[in-house]
Amino acid sequence: MDGAAFCIACGSPPPLTSERLCEDCLRARTVFSKVPERIQQHRCAKCGMHEVEKRWVTIEDEELAELRLRENLGVTDGASNVAIDMAYQPIDERTARLHVNVEGELEGYQFSGQHEVLLQTSNAVCPTCTRKAGAYFEATMQLRSAGRRLSEDELKDLRGTLNELLNELESDPMFFITKEGPVTGGWDLQLGSKALARTWARRLVRRFGGTTKETSTLVGIRDGAEVTRLTLSYRKPAYGLGDVIRLKRENWLVSAWQKDGPTLRRLDRNERTGATWRDMEKASVVSRFTDQIVVDVLNRDSSGAEVMDPTDYRVVTVALPYDDDGSGTNLRIAFIDDLWMALPGHTGEE
Q1: Does any domain span residue 113?
Q2: Residues 4 and 23 in one domain
Q3: Domain membership of residue 77 as a residue range
Q4: Residue 244 belongs to a domain
């Protein structure tokens, strides 16, 4: 009949697509999916990271292959309900074969396609490794203590917080250590990132107290902008949380860190105060937390308790701390001025 619809390619009668094609002509003219036969990628020969979307990351082989497939696979416009299956077949450390199956709908018809892709890896050097090889660094971190050398245990504790931080932070190619080692009185590190140095310094202050000092040095001009290096000095106090210190002829327990100095708790009565770092320069440590001992209470009355002297195992009497409620089965004691003293703040449990 005149005016009836027909396929514009071959003249076949309906059903027709929205472009007035029959199913056979639609299939003949449609490339439902396409992907290159070879995909080239780059891997750092030094650290093994791969370049992904202009970043260098650590990623598993199959996850990387799926990502490369998504980057390179094309599906015809108008397709719907598209499903992609991929099988990963390693050939050697530089080459893998991807077996890809693509299914979907177009104009109400089912389409499918099969592809084999060779994924090839070339060696490169990432910016981080390039900078490391060139001894690049943005910041120097100096670990020191106030008026004394840091002990090996203190250095181990301070340095360990950097490893904790690197494990917690989101991966950043600039978070690397160029060089580190002992210096007179402490430890120095050259870091690839100023932000890492500052973040680490804040953690050290929160954990161990102390102060930080920053200085910047101009080292050159790049793209019209000044390039500076940061020197950040962290100074750990000569005392720690739980230590008993003597300040202005009174004994105090270091109980917390504040920005401007520690919070102190008086030993002989319920009194708390804040001290500045400058005030604490006049303080001396009379009992370190590590030297204090938790002992069992043998007998007690309203004002004192009998405990065993940990040095000679004789029974001695110590005055109860002001916050003792009579229910604790043990006390934390410190040897101060040739006497054992019970300390406040102990809950009565180990």
Answers
A1: yes
A2: yes
A3: 31-127
A4: no
Residues 118, 173, single domain; the answer is no
Among 218, 236, 254, residue at a domain's last position: 236
Return the bridge partners of 231, or none: 140, 215
Question: Are 106 and 155 part of one and the same domain?
Answer: no
Residues 160 and 108 in one domain: no
Phi-psi region of 20 (alpha: psi -120 to 50; beta: other; left: phi over 0): left
- Sequence-ordered alpha helix ranges (H) in 43-151: 61-72, 127-133
Residue 23 shares a structural domain with residue 63: no
Within a domain: residue 16?
yes
Q: Give the three-class secondary structure for 260.
A: coil
Q: What is the CA radius of gyration of the chain?
A: 35
Which pTM was predicted? Answer: 0.64
DSSP string, 166-217: HHHSPP-TT--EEEEEEETTEEEEEES-HHHHHHHHHHHHHHH--EEEEEEE
Q: Are 131 and 100 in contact (CB under 8 A)?
A: no
Q: What is the pLDDT of residue 350?
A: 38
Task: Give the model confidence (pLDDT) of 11-35 as tens digits.
Answer: 898 999 888 999 999 999 999 999 9
Angle between helices 194-208 and 152-168 (to 10 degrees): 120
194 and 170 in one domain?
A: yes
**How many CA atoms within 13 Å lie on the side-chain side of 345?**
23
What's the rounded Cα separation, in Å, for the pair 347 and 350? 8
Contact 165, 203 (CB under 8 A): yes
Q: pLDDT digits over 169-224, tens only?
A: 887 778 889 999 999 889 999 999 999 999 999 999 999 998 899 998 887 777 76
